[in-house]
Every structure is written in structure tokens, then in C-alpha cells.
Amino acid sequence: MKKIALAALACLSLGLAACNEAAASSDTSETPSQSISILTRDTEISIGQTITLTYRADGEVGFSSSDDSIATVDDYGQVKGIGEGSAVITVYLVDDPDVKTEITISVYKPFFLYENGYYNGNFDLTDEREGTVYATGNQVQLLVNEPGQEWYFSCHIQRTGYVNNDPLGRFGVGSFLVDTLHPIGNNMFWFGFRPTGDGSSGLYTPYYGGWRYEPGMTSAEYGIDANGFDPSLGFDVTIMRSGLDHYFYFEQGEVKFGYSVAFFDGEETYPGIYSQNQELTITEFEASSDHQAVVDKLNEFQTAESVSINGLDNRLEPGIYDLTATVLPEVTPIKDVVYSLYEPHDGVTCSGDGRLVISDGASGTFRVVATSINNPNAKQTKKFQIIDSLEPSGRYEEVLAIGDGARLEGDNVVFDGNTAYMPVNALPDEDVGYTVDLTAASGKGRYGVMLAAKGYFQYDYAEIVVGEDESRILRYGNHDHSFEAEYALPGSAAFDKAIELGLYKLGGTVYVTLDGRLFKSFASCTEKAFPVVYSDGVKVSDSGHGLSTGEQASQALDLYGDFFVGGYVGLNGGAYSLAAVDIPGGNMNWPPDNDYLNGLKYKQALKGELDIRFTVSDLSPMLSGDSYDSKVLVYLQSESPTCSLQLVIKGGKDNPTYALCPNFDDATWVEYPLEEYGIDFSKAVEVRIVKKVEGLEVYLNGTRVLGDCDGLLNDDYDWSNDTLSTPGIGTFRCGATLSGVEIAAYTGE
């Protein structure tokens, strides 16, 4: 077989006969027949590769393949590899099919993809079949031909130099989302190596990051290990994917790391190599998307060392429960456990997958054993007591409380600072909401609300975490995933007052409300749940609460409006007060990068033409030196940090200037002055933005502005009715008041 280099790929994929004739001059043979000869260049091609047969014939010819599942051939003699194996391609005379000749084509599966749209940058695959490939510079993404939601990829990477005067570039292995909607290089998550410190040591440190692997993110990178490693020794690395979870193993440093990429939920990705201006030699590569092979690799990566059955209470009423367990270390990929009763118990059964059934009339105590499926020595035995059921009351019940740090005062609960949970005695429901007014007196720890399944084996929660330095943060999530967010400006009075904290579970989604704001949402881990208020280390009291279920829960959530409201945003009647603030840390001033901490985001993605209206007032731009550098931004696709229509405020303190900057392709920063329209931005300005298929119409105080602006009628952006967009409004280093905010379908008026 002739080796395939990148220089030859375009020729082969286009299938030009002239190209094949030229190549055949150095490697050809003739297969004679009565009046047909095939000139063969290569008899081995890869899946997806196309070559054009060249031949000599005394008349019109036809083509056929013995197996179209391996190789197809069209009327022009173009042979395309479809699947692994061998197929016989026959060339025959149309007028006399008995006059024919044949060529056997062997089709193999390439390890790396080099089809158009599935690679970036410069690399050399000449020696791929011999086990070596080279990344030779620029921004390289080289995909392994094993797409799926579970796979592994291992290789040895040797850094041999750099290009483009970039000695500080990064490299590593990644997970790449590539399809017709996601061009290569747009959505990728990776583990890799970056220069340690300022790079002067010549050492490299493991890190993780990528591009647009989370909603609202452009790029990010975070350290995994502080140690530096010598690149001259090479790097033996493995990346594994199992569902959302991605795992990384770096052999030299015994570094193990895991990260869950929720953005890839339900999406197939490709493993692969990435490199930023580095010259790499990649050897010893292997990969598989076979389920058992992936399981074996995951178990090789890390097996369970301990198992702990979840649940806050060991008292269980008769009923059906789905047990869960926590497996450690956290980076253990396969966390499945097998459950069983320690010994038989009348009226109690437990299946291997954790379905626990306690029949009416059962009594006493019983024990359940949970054992890791990949380490029989990692197990736990937990004892449970059967208690009588209580008639649901919809109120707190002290008899059901967990811990001794809570008491009831009338209808409200008071926590004394010890760990305690006070449940609401209500039937679990698929749709349930609970809000509670909580006032913290003192202490360090956490307090909040959870929506728990029976037995507390699964629960969703939202809690305020009070740090040793009196800092406060909102934490929310469940066993599977947890998140943190600021809920007020640091040092503001909001930390010193009672907060109204709420959780609403509607089907599979949980919404967090806080002080009248719809704040966050996440995927629920429960089917049916009931409310619980709790505290751990904080003296806190409940001064009011409300329970809603079924349709009432949905109606109660609707009262919070259609927007997620950021933690730095204050409510003033029906208006929103955005702070004048400079958020530290990289690009954090862009609203999508800080998840609209200082703005509003619509609570769902929308399609079609939109009519966006609001009034902006009380503009408070921030100076950068002697001039303003501030923006008010309307986002039309929150997945991009800059895809927005921007009101740009510049100029000096006494003479601010205002312009519109349409930036819909993340690269256009042309500003169009608004001076000619005579708009007084020191007063309230009514804004209307109509998002249409052909572009935007913008109205300020009822006057259309920049009607013939090419930037607003951007042909490079997809404004089609099928395009999903998540509108949002935020500011960049600018205070503002937003009122009358509405987003509706455009009706043509």
C-alpha cells in the first residue's frame, strides 16, 4: 500500500482521473481482458475515502461492486470506502457484459479522521499505519474515528518544538463535538498540558479547559495539578468518556481527574488530539468505543474503595424506595453497586438495583448491604427501622425531624445551630414548590431548602453557605451535580436581611427563586418529592413559608416572570436595577461569561422572529482612566459571549458619546454613532428591537435608527426561524434600570 500523506488527500477525495493517472505512473499494473484494462494505483483505501478508477476500454463501460456495504462505485468509476473488508469492483462493456475485468479493493478503518470538516491545522499522517502521526503547527484538532457517548483514547505525546513564535502553547487530548450544527473547533473539552508559571522552567503542568463546552462560555482553562513535568520525557495520557463524565489519566504524574460536561448530554463526541502552535509526535495510540472495552479501561483507571448508602434518616415508613449510594474516590468512573438484604426480613424485599419495598404491617429493624460491582471489598451495611406512617398534614412535624437542633414555635421552625432537618409532612409530588423566609442570626455553615424523595435517598437542594470570613454564596444542585453562584453584591445589605428562598420542581426541572427573583434552574434527580428545611452550623429561623403542588406550583412559579435575574440585580417594583460594577477575572464583565450575574436571561430558548421591548434609564457608565468604557447589551444568542447589539458609551465624564455596535459573528466591532438622532440618554429611553429573518430593526423612543446599516442586516449570521436563541439583557461596567421588559413573537406590527 502507498502511504497517504495530507498533500495527496485532496486529490484522492476529489477523485480526479488525471490525478490517479499521474499517481499510477509510479505504481501501476495492467489487468488485461479482451478489450478492457484497469490501471490500478492503490487497492487499499480507508472508510470515507474516494478514488477514481482509470481504465482503457474499446467502448462504453459500466461498473459494479460485489458488496456495497464495503465499497460502492458509481457510473464514473468513483470507488468509495464504506465499511471494513474487501469488495470486488467489476468493469464491463455495456454492449457486451461478458467482456469485463475486476479489481479487489480492501477497505480499512482509519484511526484518525481526515475528511473535510473533521480536522483543523497542520499534521502529517504519512506514517499513521505504522503507528506515528505528527502535529506540525497552528491550531490542530485531529479526531479519532471513534464517535460516541462512551469511548477511550490513549497515546504517547512527545513535544518536539513550536511554530509561530509561540513557545507557550498548549497541547493534549480532548472530546470534540463535531456535526453539521457544530463546526470543528467550536465545541470542545480537553485535558492537557500548559507551561508551568511563566514558562521559564521548561516544565509543563496538567490542566483542563476548552471552547464552549458549557452554555455561556467561550473558553476557559483550570489547573489540575500544581507539579511541573519535563516534556522531553513525553506524556502517556488517556482520556475516557462515559456519558457526561470525562476522565483523564496522566501516567508519569499518576494524575487522575474527572469532569462532567453537561453540554454534551445526548451528543456523540470524538476523542482526539489538540495542539496550539506546538510540534508533536504522537505514538502508541489506541482507542475503542466498544462498551466492554470502555468498561475495562474505566475499571483500570480507578475502582471503588468505599461505598456509603445515602439517606439522612434510618427511619422508613411502609412504601417503595429507590436506594442510592456514594462511591469513593470521587473519580471512580463506574459507581454501580449491588444491593441486598443482610438477612431475610418479613415484609421487606430489596432488589439488586436498589428497589426497597416495605409492606404494610412490616415492623422491626433490617439491614441492607451495598457492594461495589468492581470491588467486592468496597461495601457498607446500613440498619433501618420501620415506623408507622403519619397522615399528611402539609405542616412541619417535629416527630419527623432529623437531629435535635430544630424546634417548632407555632407553625415556624427555629434551628439552634446544630445539624437538623425539619420536613413538611406532605405527599411527594412530581410538581411541588416551597418558599421559606429565613433569617440567620449567627454561625458558620449552611442552611436552606431541599425537595427530597421518600427516605432522603435522592434530593435537590438550594442553600446559603456562610464562610469563616462571613462570606455568603448560594449553592444548589443534588448528588449528581452541584453549582455555586453569588446572590448579592459583596458587602451589600442583602446579606444582613432575611431571604426568601424557594425551590420549585416541575417535572424534571428544578427552579431556584431568591428574594422575588427567578434565579437558577437545573435537572432534578427525583421523580416525586416533598419539602425539607434544614440548617447545619447556623442559627436560623423561619418566619414564613408556603407550599404548592400540582398546577398550583406551576402557577406560583409563573409569578416570578419569564427571566432569570442575576444576583447583582435589584428589584424595584416592576423594574430591575443593574449595578455599576467591574467584575474581576478575565472576561467576567461579559454577561454570558458571568451567567448574567448583572443582567436578565430569558428562561427558555426561543425560535422565530422576536419583538424585544424595554425602557432603559439611570445609566451609570464607569470610567476607565479619563474616559468611559461601558455597554448595555442585548443578547440574541446567550451561548455566545459577544453575539449582541451593544449600546456603547465612551467619551469623557462631561461629554459621553453613544453608539450602536451590532456584533453577531463574534468578530465585528464597528460602532455607529447615534448623535444625529438627538436622543437624551440621561433620561429614560424606550428601546424596541425586532429580530427578523433578514436582520434587526432598532427603534429608540419610537424612531427607527440605522435603518440601512449593513451591520444590522448581517448576512453571516443565521437568523432563520429554525435557529434557537436565548435572549438576554445585561451591562458591561455600567449601571442601569430596566423596566417594561417584554419579549414576544413578532407579529408584523
UniProtKB/TrEMBL annotation:
The signal peptide, as residue positions, is 1-22
InterPro entries reported for this sequence:
Big_2, Invasin/intimin_cell_adhesion
Q: Which Gene3D superfamilies match?
A: 2.60.40.1080
Q: Where is the BIG2 domain?
A: 49-92
Q: Which UniProt keywords apply?
A: Signal
Looking at the keywords, is Signal present? yes
Name the UniProt record assigns to this protein: BIG2 domain-containing protein
